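## retry 2 of 3
previous attempt timed out at serialization; input unchanged, resubmitting
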Amino acid sequence: MSPSSLALTDSELVRKYISSQREDYFATLYLRYSDKVYSKCYSMLKNEEWAIDACQDIFLKIFLNLAKFEEKSQFSTWVYSITFNYCIDALRKAKKELSTATDSGSEIENLADDDNSSEFLEIEAKALEKILDLIPAEDRAFLIMKYEQGLSIREIADILGKTESAVKMKIKRARDKAHSISRTIINFLIIIILWRS
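## retry succeeded, writing output
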């Protein structure tokens, strides 16, 4: 990789790669974004191996579609959009496969059999993760973008190609679902505590 490629902007690297096909230009883009893409994949998919595979697939997709980047937005926004859409599709596909496996009579681990009462009472960060796991993938992604990754409404709207008001409504609905689930979990825990006392 040439030191000169490190000084170029993302858009310059894309243009130079398309015109010359020199690998060091794409390699520089990969170095700039691979950790960020992996981090976003992991925050959405919640599985290290799955996130690694997703990251590789996403960069292959970026590589194959680089000529389609039209600089209507920042390159980082374009990469994030591809990452988000890939992860949402992967979660939907996994949910569909799980549903198909369940319908065909496959056994699923019964978490209710684990009678460890101390785990029921650890509600802080772990409970929040569980709550996020229980809401639909798209809603979870909106909450992660807004509250975990600190993106503004405008940035989320740009990434997803939606209006700011649509993003605000999605975030409100996702928050409402998370609150509803957390109330249900808390009520469930209270019932368990009362039943055991």
